[in-house]
Amino acid sequence: MRKKLRGRVILLLAVTSLTGYYLVPSLGLVDSLPSLVPGLLPRVERVNLGLDLQGGMYLVLEVQAEKAVEAAVERMIDDARRLLEKEKVEVASFAPQGVNGLVLKVAKGDERDKAQKALGELVTMEKLPGATPDELRLTLYSKEAARIQDLAVRQSLETIRNRVDQFGVSEPHIVPEGDRRIVVQLPGIKDPQRAINLIGKTAQLELKAVDTKYNPVEVAQKKVELPPDLQLLDLREVDDKRQVIGKQPIVVERKPVITGASLTSAEVRPDDQGGWLVAFGLDSQGARVFGDFTGANVGRQLAIVLDDTVYSAPVIRSKIGEGRGQIEGNFTAETARDLAIVLRAGALPAPVKIIANLTVGPSLGQDSIEKGIRAAILGAALVVLLMAMYYKFSGVIANFALLLNCIILVGTLVAIRATLTLPGIAGIALGIGMAVDSNVLILERIREELKLGKTVRSAIDAGYDKAFVTIVDSHVTTLITAAALFLFGTGPIKGFAVTLSLGVAINLFSALVGTRVVYDYMISRRELKTLSI
What we know:
Elements lengths: L1 H22 L8 E2 L10 E2 L2 E2 L1 H4 L1 E8 L1 H22 L4 E6 L4 E6 L5 H7 L6 E5 L5 E6 L1 H26 L5 E5 L3 E7 L4 H9 L4 E5 L6 H5 L9 E9 L5 E10 L4 E2 L3 E8 L5 E7 L1 H13 L5 E5 L2 E4 L11 E8 L1 H13 L6 E9 L1 H54 L3 E2 L1 H30 L4 H33 L3 H34 L8
Parallel strand pairs: 3-21, 12-18
Antiparallel strand pairs: 1-2, 4-10, 4-20, 5-6, 6-8, 7-8, 9-10, 11-14, 11-17, 12-13, 15-16, 16-19, 17-18
Helix pairs in contact: 1-10, 1-13, 3-5, 5-6, 5-9, 10-11, 10-13, 11-12, 11-13, 12-13
């Protein structure tokens, strides 16, 4: 009996001490504590508060999925050119038609049917004769367009999630909403505009060769028209303080040498002028293409293009065969770091539009916390008083179990880095209510056994044994409900389910082990003739 009691006492003290250690920073006594197991467990910090408690940003983004379809059609133009060149069909022009189509004109009208046959490998596009004998209309099938749009939304969700994770926001909430929208909640964000820039930037990196045959200024003034394989972009101009002060036109080839899809790394490094640059690495295929191009174009400018803006256009001095390059743009440390984040996380497959941008002030969160604390203190005081008055000393023991329940529950939330929200607080309150119910069941059973004339020891044993099945049954059914809420719910519902599940599990421990230890200790000290209950 004593060995069994000693083991339960050690278990109770260990669990309470461990969770109490995790609880200390949340009480405001210290900011953080060192990890109990360095290298395995994280530092002990305050409990994470959700958006509704500490404030932050609430964004609703809409993915412009039709742009992904347009990009897919543009890529198919390259495939079509390759197939037609293979069959020696001369192309006069390609012209976009709507979002998901294009019109092909062959140089010789009698080769239209030959072109249609040559493009048979483009199985996702419908190929029909055009209005004139030399035209062929290519249209993306509706199912394929829908697939591309759906994929663009899902890829955007993952890309945004990766960017936010690298940005360092604690416990962000990023979920899809409807067909094209994404909801982003960033608790405790200190720089909303920086977060918006980071999340919303498409970050499509392209390396394009600069063309010097055309005067960029004349092209910008519409005095000269560029051929379809060239385009006019803006080159950023920055001052000594690394602030953008203007832009100047530059002509580049439309087809990129390398795109961000070939990137394997992006790191921030200091430059020679006391500023910062972003160094990047390419995969084996990209490194080969990059090496071949730079080797064949020594002395030519190569534009570093990000979202159709040229950040720099350095001259190729020699062949770059190791698959590494750098983006120079007189960046500050912060802007260089943000650019490296979006490059590592990958480009968005389509632009995103901000539909809603709400900044929740910390005063709202603090007000909610204060009201929640007052309500919890008032409710706890009433419960403690009622239990002590109705069940006397046994009620005090039950109150000890409630205190134990709260310490272990909040300490566990901190340990698993869970985020506490208002629905989560509601789950804690419900769990405490179930803890009271469990203790009432046990105490009423003990009362009934004492009325039957049993000894205190027998009454306690019988009370716990008979209440055990009822308590476990009610807690298991609640756990099943909480599991369903967690699996099928989103956001606040999941927060409620997490705290409720933890509360139920911890309540089983505190009610069946915590209070039982106290009774067993009292009985082991001396034979009780009566019990205050």
